[in-house]
Amino acid sequence: MEDQPVILVIDDDEQLTQILVQVLTQEGYRVQVALTGNEGIASARLTPPRLILLDLMLPDLYGREVCREVRKWLDVPIIILSARDSEQEKVLALDEGADDYLTKPFSIVELSARVRAHLRRVRPQPTPPQMLNVGDLIVDQTRRQVTRDGQVIALTATEYAILCYLILHADRVVTIRALQQAVQDTSQGDLASLRVHISHLRKKVVLDTDTPPYLKTEHGIGFRLVTFGIGDIPEVAASVS
User: Is the dihedral of CA 28, 68, 47, 59 positive or negative?
Assistant: First the structure.
């Protein structure tokens, strides 16, 4: 269902995440799971959730770092789930932007009640744009269809994810690491594979010319989708931090 609230669970405890997915799905939510902090940040950018359940002890980043980063562009409830129960930890997490704190082990019934309470109070978020366009290049996110100059272009799931990410960050340098994180659900994420996907995308969408929009390689750093010269930059590009 399109109106199902999305809840993002960022926790490397796979047994716990399986339980949360089962319980929250039964309660009518759509659940996304990220096992690392960077994966969680990338997931939140691509599909903004209505609420985040966040562990503090993650394999790559500390939970407060994730909270701080997500707060730069997303204003949704964040509930910390952690075995650390000191007052200082709770205060630090709340100061970094968390809205609530549950100490592990916790009652699933209590967690569900807190989720419902926060969602009742959540401020409406801007509706993600269903149509992304840069000049004559159009991405219909509802149908997952890409067209340029009226011609439908067939893309793989990974190529589609890369293109959406580039459009959302139009005219800004997108690092190789950021792209790898953005497409890690549909790609192995190694640099050689990413370069192959970029090459295919350039050929299919004709992004290898000097006429905007075109994809510029920032050597040693990443890529930039250049839109100058075709009119106004899409509003969505300016709204993403």
Answer: negative
Interatomic CA distance for residues 206 and 14, integer angstroms: 41
pLDDT tens for each residue of 119-158: 887 555 555 567 888 878 889 888 889 998 888 999 888 8
pLDDT digits (tens, 9 = 90+) for 41-90: 989 988 899 999 999 999 999 999 999 889 888 888 999 999 988 888 88
Q: Which residues form the domain of 72?
A: 6-121
Q: Positive or negative CA dihedral for 181, 186, 191, 196?
A: negative
Instruction: Give CA–CA dist 222/220, Å, rounded.
Output: 6
Element (H, E) at 55: strand 51-55
The strands making up 51-55's β-sheet, listed across from edge to edge, are 30-34, 6-10, 51-55, 78-82, 100-103
CATH value at residue 165: 1.10.10.10
Tell me the whole-structure pTM to 2 decimals. 0.53
Place of tokens 């309660």: 27
